[in-house]
Task: inverse folding
């Protein structure tokens, strides 16, 4: 009697775990089935080689490249902002800062990641863009630069926190050997600690890239909605995510080709983030126990 | 200048550069919050909280938005907490070595990296269309619950992991079954950590905009939702809508609504951090 009760409970618990698998299968099924019917009308080669994306105009083109360029551009700006700052923070906190400071500043930095992204979008549009316009003459009110910079600030804690963990978990003996040779903290940090913790730092950067690619509200608010094939940070661009938002806000009839474009865009986005996540997973697994 | 001296200068320069970087993000955030406060705080009054949306910025309020956020918060919690905690318990206490558990584990790591807007596409097809919930609160809550499930599961596992084996063994020694041990001993002992994770996950759900846009949450809802099947808007949606309008009055409204949203987010995060510290101090196994 007791045993059946236990079994039922275990079954219920296992079912809850299965929900996460159903979620993944659901995502893949939804993306694949809707984009499958999209690709029956638009050929895959058009999708990846056409340089125009105008599904909502009368002259329709379905080339994903402009959206990819927009996504790539804002992501690159964000990573170029967050990477040097994030790694410097990680090195400072693990190699220079007193223990107490490190302990109290880490949760404070996490606040940057807790702010809702729509708030960052407002910030980019109303504070950063006007500021940039005063430096760069002729900058439009929507541009990739402002959105990318603000996105960079948002992902600083991702890089700094994970990289700091990687640096912190290095064995003390490594640093002591370096100090014993007469190296300064700077030399120890960048010639011994950072290379030794490089797998963890690379993982943090890959995860940050995945986060930036999938970020939606900042780019939807501040980067504009013009799918132009450009790599000029001063231009207004449209990312994959911003396009999905644009269509969702409009009155596109369910089942139409325009409706299906958001799933084709979605599967492109999913493939990129899936690959990046798995690379980071693989690196983590492979290099995890190097020093244990 | 000798090489030695040069190295020392580089060393101490980097120290100050490190301090600068550490505070850079926080200073930018402080400037921003100051800017928001100066712009929006004048707009916050009882009318702003109790008025329905309007085409005229000075008359528009956030009643439907904050009640929608409260609805979403409650419904998402009801759906996600039992599922997330149960899955966490299963993975940590039951499925240590079996194949299903290891597949679930890899899967959760992957789900945590899926962009939130993709969850919106999932919600649109499954909850809005297939299950026919429409752009309702229920569809939004289910979508957000799936989104935060990995966070709750991971937090539950971490908290359970921190409970020492001796506690479980003592309970087994008294003749308790596995589930009795979990329900009466392990879960209560881990409750602080689990609660912290739940609050952080829910605060994430409160701030989400993108998936709700995709499932068709409306920016203009002229009534307060009374059942889970009603159409809805939430604070982030309202902010997004106001930000995209040209009139300056709406920008002020957006700033005021942001103050309310940030207040909710920071309070939830504050409670979570407080609980985490308290729990870490109390539990010294």
Result:
């Amino acid at each position: 009697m007791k045993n059946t009760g236990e079994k039922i409970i275990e079954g219920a618990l296992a079912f809850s775990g299965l929900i996460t698998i159903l979620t993944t299968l659901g995502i893949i099924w939804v993306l694949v089935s809707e984009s499958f019917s999209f690709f029956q009308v638009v050929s895959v080669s058009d999708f990846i080689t056409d340089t125009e994306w105008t599904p909502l105009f009368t002259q329709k083109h379905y080339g994903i490249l402009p959206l990819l360029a927009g996504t790539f551009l804002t992501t690159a700006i964000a990573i170029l902002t967050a990477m040097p700052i994030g790694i410097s923070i990680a090195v400072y906190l693990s190699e220079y800062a007193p223990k107490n400071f490190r302990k109290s500043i880490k949760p404070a930095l996490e606040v940057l990641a807790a702010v809702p992204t729509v708030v960052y979008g407002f910030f980019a549009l109303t504070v950063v863009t006007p500021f940039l316009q005063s430096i760069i003459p002729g900058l439009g009110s929507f541009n990739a630069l402002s959105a990318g910079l603000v996105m960079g600030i948002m992902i600083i804690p991702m890089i700094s926190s994970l990289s700091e963990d990687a640096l912190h978990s290095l064995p003390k003996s490594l640093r002591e050997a370096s100090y014993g040779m007469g190296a300064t903290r700077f030399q120890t940090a960048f010639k011994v600690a950072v290379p030794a913790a490089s797998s963890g730092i690379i993982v943090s950067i890959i995860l940050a890239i995945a986060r930036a690619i999938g970020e939606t509200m900042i780019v939807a608010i501040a980067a504009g909605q013009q799918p132009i094939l450009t790599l000029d940070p001063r231009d207004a661009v449209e990312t994959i995510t911003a396009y999905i938002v644009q269509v969702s806000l409009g009155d596109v009839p369910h089942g139409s080709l325009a409706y299906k474009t958001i799933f084709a865009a979605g599967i492109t986005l999913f493939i990129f983030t899936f690959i990046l996540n798995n690379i980071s997973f693989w690196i983590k697994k492979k290099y995890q126990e190097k020093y244990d | 200048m000798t090489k030695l001296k040069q190295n020392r200068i580089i060393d101490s320069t980097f120290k100050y550069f490190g301090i600068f970087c550490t505070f850079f993000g926080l200073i930018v955030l402080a400037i921003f919050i100051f800017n928001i406060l100066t712009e929006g705080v004048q707009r916050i009054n009882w009318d702003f909280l109790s008025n329905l949306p309007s085409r005229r910025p000075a008359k528009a309020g956030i009643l439907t938005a904050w009640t929608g956020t409260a609805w979403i918060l409650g419904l998402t919690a009801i759906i996600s907490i039992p599922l997330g905690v149960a899955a966490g318990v299963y993975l940590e206490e039951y499925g240590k070595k079996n194949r299903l558990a290891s597949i679930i584990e890899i899967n959760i790591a992957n789900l945590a990296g899926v962009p939130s807007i993709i969850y919106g596409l999932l919600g649109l097809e499954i909850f809005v269309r297939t299950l026919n919930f429409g752009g309702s609160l229920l569809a939004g809550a289910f979508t957000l619950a799936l989104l935060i499930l990995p966070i709750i599961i991971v937090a539950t596992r971490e908290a359970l992991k921190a409970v020492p084996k001796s506690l479980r063994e003592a309970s087994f020694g008294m003749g308790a079954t596995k589930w009795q041990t979990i329900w009466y001993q392990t879960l209560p002992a881990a409750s602080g950590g689990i609660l912290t994770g739940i609050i952080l996950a829910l605060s994430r759900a409160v701030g989400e905009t993108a998936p709700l846009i995709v499932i068709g949450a409306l920016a203009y809802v002229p009534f307060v939702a009374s059942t889970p099947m009603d159409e809805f808007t939430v604070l982030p949606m309202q902010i997004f809508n106001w930000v995209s309008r040209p009139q300056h009055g709406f920008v002020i409204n957006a700033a005021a609504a942001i103050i309310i949203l940030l207040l909710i987010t920071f309070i939830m995060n504050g409670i979570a951090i407080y609980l985490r510290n308290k729990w870490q101090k109390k539990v010294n196994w």
About this structure: The mean pLDDT of chain A is 89.
